[in-house]
Amino acid sequence: MPSANPPRLNTPGRERQWLPRLKFSADTFGEFAEGFARFMGTARFLIWMTIFIVVWLVYNAVAPENARIDPFPFIFLTLVLSLQASYAAPLILLAQNRQDDRDRVSLEHDREVSAQSRADMDFLARELASLRMRVNDMPTRDFLRSELRDLLEELKGEDSEEAGEDDERAQRPAASDSRRERRREGAHRQGEGSRKQG
Fold first, then answer.
1. Which of 10, 62, 180, 191 has the smallest CB count inside 10 Å?
2. pTM above 0.70, yes or no
3. For the CA atoms of 41, 47, 48, 50, what is the dihedral angle to 10 degrees?
């Protein structure tokens, strides 16, 4: 038989919890776990733990029977050490997990930086190669000097040819003038000779 009031899907509700819900910051607890694990990994912790155990054993072995807290099998000391180990192990694992997460993020960041650095180096290598090619295509000082010398010699040759042509032109009008004068003189003499004969 179905229940009288089935839960409706469109009505938000809360589940009943028999235990109180504890709210705490995961970062705060993680920092506490890391601090605890860091303290347990120090020489100070080992020294104080050793001093505590030695004092406990000596007191419970030497003290009168009615003043002993934990007689010979030291059951209470075993219980305290077991309790300390049972809490220390998860706290150390939690600290290691947080450190692994940080290492993973740092490794990813290092990979990104490495990839960017490699891309930058490849870009710079390509730029250097293109600059070398451009420098190899550029004329050298010796090549420019030789080209300028050849050009200067060509210009000097052209100047000498033009000077020769100018000399020839200067000589041609003089020769033509002397020919004209000779013709005139010849024509003049012929005219005089014909006058004498007439």
1. 10
2. no
3. 110
